[in-house]
Specification:
Chain lengths: ~500, ~475
């Protein structure tokens, strides 16, 4: 074959391969796959300052000023990544399968409750960011007004069945309720009507028969508390509640299908149930109060100064693990002010301090964002539905703390040691089938799932070159399925973090 | 008297022995039975003599859940009710259908099959059924069942002349019951709305709701709301535990000539798990139907089979040419797990009589998937183990994905909502269909089913109606007016 002919064949082969690649991407590519944001370091509240304030080695505990610095750092990150019209924030990181638009919505919605709790706590309405001052109420009100306006090019899109918008609507609704005086009140009547219309879609859409039912319930109670008439959806919400209630297995535990028992009990179920009660004090107190109390009696043993023995999905929500303890502050009302209540409050704050300190010192923050693994970024732990901003659900513990704090009264309150700091223990929780052991000397917590086989332990699969190559071909997440390792091991321990972790 | 005007009957001020609300198979069976015993019967039908779009629109409502269907399509609002478009498929419930089968799933009836058996022969006669064939065992876990076919009986056509001749029976069309009036634990009158909106009270000693698997709940829910809970005093179960028979294609099968399946007049071969298999495998009841496919479709199946099992595929292809194999679509309709959150509720929108439209909250769940998957796997394993064929199951059956929303989904078998139970907290009516807490309001029809087995409900509806007629007119119960 002549050289010319070889060249022609090669060119044709390249063209063919290019066409094939294009055809594949037409079927698989996630919108906006290549439009990745670049990391922007926070300058006003730099990461180094936050790391110093939350250094595990500091002699005293972080206080309100330190948590405010952490929140400023995170909100400065939001300011750096938010869009010109303010309705999204495009954080750097691995995109989700839902695409750039939905990922950007998460970047807005998942930090909004923190800003709302900040505002609700009476803290300054504006913070200093690299570009000047950010008026939080104005920024979020504007973003919501734009995002819910179907005629605006940056509209968040209709809420569909099982859609990302359905998930995010719950955080938008919660934030609006928390900052009702600062953000909701700032919207004019037309904007409020559009917000109600957008959020109300979530009350009519299909959600998975598990923790997803909490999204519509949160939206419903928030809208009702904001004065919107959502009574036509009351029966649907009752059905949602009954489906959720059917997942309850006792001792505060919900079995979320298809995964069963995992940390979602803390940062999804008990987080949302807390807010449902805050928005609607009459909401199932006979069930929720004792369930949370029972849950906390076990959960508190999992949290220690050297991290926690995380198992299950969404490992990057790791800093939200103290949520149930924070939800229990001041509960039951009859015990407020008693030594027992003060100890519980101190323990919750200690859990908050140690969790944030340990994870910040292990790569939890990067360029004004929460990283997407257990320590730093780790795509092996990132579900394909998770995008660059998904892990902002880690802020749920901060949301709860700021919402309960007035003038530093909570965050500066005395701390009480965690169970593992007081002594060795062995706790059996029959409902999830978990045994939790703690070693005071090692500051180590171990979780044994009694129903799992001792050996062989399912290995964690890496997000390696092959996955990278596949992603570069299809322009969509191709992350390893680590379900077996995250749920099927018998032993999880605070010193055996899932995925990669630099000590 | 047939098609008496509502105004005329109300004006007469007559107090009937019994007022039957709804003229489907349950209402007409009760009317003929009680009328034949000399009871003065008032049979109210909300619709007219025939299907009419305007009347049918009153049945509109919304299904809230992932799988949608139209509430005004599966049931007919006219004399004869849904028997006007009934297919005629009949089977009796299995004895195990009256029991609990799966721990945690409440399928128990307060009566047993033996309580319905005495009414089988009369029901068979009413429905003009083909002869009964006993089930044949197929392996350890399955049985080959036989569907019995009614011509089908159209109750409107068959019983219109009968009721016309029956003096004690008064049939009123276009009489939509919109309220129940109670006094001292008894219903004293119903309020019916004429087609033009006029409202009239009608009195009787006994009342029976026979308005169907959605309307029975809707009427009671509405009356209970209007009368602050005085109709169903313990309403915890009212409208709830609503069930259907989910209908889906689950795969396809290639059957060898020696397979013992017998294809009936609809080209369907029926099978079901045994009672022991249901208990052993944690399944509710399921009806598996192999529907014979044309030869070209069977050939396509063989080609697909050849991709995964070349030798077998070649053998099947050769067998197809010699007619040793046949291809069949595997479909299933199964017993849905009764769940309290599957329920009829009063919607926000009103019909033209001012009554809230029905909103049906309905979904099928993992127990349902477990049932259909378990039953289909039993068939696949039994066929393979006996060398009778091969089954390919659709991915969703095996847990990969959702129930397909574009399939048949349901069988138009509306059951539950006013279920039977001895416990008023778990049911609306007692073992005879009497509403707990009242002395003279019964419910008839499939809405009283606590669970639905896997068989078409009409035969059981007629059996229960005959039993209720005997109960109402029994010597120790209620004598008709002197």
């Amino acid at each position: 074959m002549s050289a010319r002919r070889i060249r022609v064949v090669l060119i044709l082969a390249l063209i063919g391969a290019g066409l094939l690649l294009h055809a594949v991407r037409l079927r698989t590519a996630v919108p906006g796959w290549n439009e990745r944001a670049k990391p922007i370091a926070t300058r006003v509240t730099p990461q180094s300052e936050v790391a110093r304030r939350f250094s595990p080695g500091r002699a005293d505990h972080p206080g309100s000023a330190d948590y405010e610095a952490l929140a400023r750092h995170l909100m400065e990150g939001f300011a750096n990544y938010r869009t010109a019209s303010g309705e999204r924030a495009h954080y750097p990181g691995e995109p989700s399968q839902a695409g750039r638009s939905a990922d950007g919505l998460e970047g807005f919605s998942r930090i909004f409750p923190l800003a709302a709790a900040w505002l609700a706590s009476g803290r300054p309405g504006s913070i200093e960011v690299a570009s000047g001052r950010l008026d939080l109420a104005q920024a979020f009100a504007r973003g919501i007004a734009v995002g819910t306006d179907p005629n605006h090019p940056a509209y968040w899109g209709d809420v569909g069945d099982y859609s990302p918008q359905l998930v995010e609507s719950a955080d938008i609704a919660l934030g609006l309720w928390l900052a009702r005086e600062q953000v909701w009140a700032r919207l004019d009547a037309t904007e409020q009507a559009r917000v109600v219309a957008w959020l109300s879609q979530s009350l009519q859409r299909q959600a998975w028969d598990g923790n997803w039912q909490l999204f519509a319930l949160t939206v419903h109670r928030a809208l009702r508390a904001l004065g919107a008439d959502v009574s036509r959806y009351d029966e649907r919400m009752q059905t949602s509640w009954e489906i959720l209630r059917s997942l309850y297995r006792g001792q505060g535990w919900f079995a979320d299908p298809p995964n069963g028992f995992d940390f979602y009990n803390a940062w999804s179920f008990h987080y949302s149930l807390y807010w449902l009660q805050q928005m609607d004090p009459g909401f199932e107190p006979e069930f929720i109060d004792p369930a949370r109390s029972e849950f906390v009696s076990t959960w508190r043993h999992l949290l220690g100064p050297r991290g926690h023995p995380l198992m299950g999905r969404s490992a990057c929500y790791r800093m939200a693990a103290p949520v149930p303890l924070l939800a229990q502050i001041g509960q039951p009302a009859g015990l407020r002010g008693t030594p027992a209540a003060e100890h519980a409050r101190g323990e919750a704050l200690r859990a908050l301090d140690t969790t944030w300190s340990w994870f910040i010192s292990h790569g939890a923050l990067e360029a004004g964002r929460v990283t997407s693994g257990f320590c730093g970024d780790d795509p092996a732990l990132q579900a394909s539905y998770s995008g660059p901003a998904s892990c902002l659900w880690s802020l749920r513990s901060l949301v709860m703390a700021f919402a309960q704090d007035r003038n530093g009264q909570l965050l500066d309150a005395p701390r009480s040691p965690l169970p593992v700091e007081l002594g060795d223990f062995r706790i059996e929780s029959s409902v999830p089938g978990w045994t939790i052991t703690g070693s005071q000397a090692l500051q180590r917590v171990e979780l044994t799932i009694e129903g799992n086989d001792a050996a062989p332990e399912p290995p964690m699969r890496r997000h390696g070159l092959l996955e990278r190559l596949r992603e570069s071909i299809v322009h969509a997440p191709r992350r390893p399925d680590n379900h077996a390792a995250l749920y099927g091991r018998r032993r999880y321990a605070s010193d055996l973090p899932p995925g990669r972790c630099t000590p | 008297m047939f098609a008496e005007s509502l105004e005329a009957v109300a004006r007469g001020g007559r107090r009937f022995d019994v007022c039957l609300i709804g003229s489907g198979p349950a209402g007409i069976t009760l009317a003929t039975e009680l009328g034949a015993r000399g009871w003065s019967v008032l049979l109210l039908e909300a619709g007219g003599a025939h299907v009419d779009p305007d009347s049918q629109a009153m049945y509109e409502g919304e299904v809230v859940g992932p799988l949608k269907f139209d509430l005004d399509v599966g049931r007919l609002r006219c004399f004869g009710g849904s028997s006007n478009h009934w297919g005629g498929f009949c089977q009796t419930l299995d004895a195990i259908d009256f029991e609990d089968k799966v721990p945690g799933i409440d399928t128990k009836w307060p009566i047993g099959r033996s309580d319905l058996d005495p009414f089988l022969a009369r029901a068979e006669s009413i429905l003009e059924l083909t002869a009964h064939q006993p089930d044949r065992p197929y392996g350890e876990a399955l049985r080959l069942t036989t569907m019995r076919y009614s011509p089908p009986v159209n109750f409107a056509a068959k019983y219109r002349p009968v009721l016309k001749r029956m003096d004690p029976v008064t049939v009123v069309l276009d009489a939509c019951v919109v309220d129940l009036h109670e006094d001292a634990g008894a219903i004293v009158a119903v309020e019916a709305c004429g087609r033009e909106g006029s409202r009239h009270r009608l009195a009787a000693r006994q009342f029976v709701l026979c308005a169907g698997g959605i309307e029975n709940s809707r009427i009671l829910l509405w009356a209970n709301r209007k009368h602050a809970g005085r109709i169903v005093k313990e309403p915890a179960a009212l409208g709830r535990y609503w069930i259907e028979h989910p209908h889906f294609t689950v795969g396809e099968a290639l059957l060898e000539a020696q397979a013992p399946m017998v294809f009936d007049r609809w080209s369907i071969a029926w099978s079901a798990p045994t009672a022991a298999a249901m208990r052993d495998h944690g399944l509710l009841n399921a009806g598996l139907r192999l529907t014979r496919r044309p030869r070209e479709a069977a050939r396509e199946m063989a080609v697909r089979l050849a991709c995964v099992a070349p030798e077998l595929g070649q053998r099947v292809m050769a067998g197809l040419n010699r007619r040793l194999f046949c291809g069949a679509l595997l479909r299933a309709s199964w017993e849905q797990a009764p769940r309290p959150w599957n329920r009829v509720v009063l919607g926000a929108d009103l019909d033209r009589n001012g009554v809230p439209k029905a909103e049906l909250h309905w979904r099928i769940d993992e127990v349902d998937r477990q049932t259909v998957r378990g039953a289909a796997l039993l068939l696949a394993e039994t066929l393979a183990a006996r060398g009778h064929g091969r089954v390919r199951l659709d991915p969703w059956v095996l847990g990969q994905g959702m129930f397909p929303a574009d399939d048949e989904i349901k069988g138009n078998h509306h059951m539950g909502g006013t279920r039977m139970s001895v416990d008023p907290r778990r049911g609306v009516v007692d073992a005879h269909g009497l509403v707990h807490g009242l002395t003279n309001l019964h419910v008839a029809g499939s809405s009283v089913f606590p669970s639905g087995g896997a068989v078409n409900p009409t035969l059981t509806i007629v059996q229960l109606s005959l039993r209720l007629a005997d109960h109402l007119s029994g010597p120790m119960r209620f004598s008709r007016a002197a």
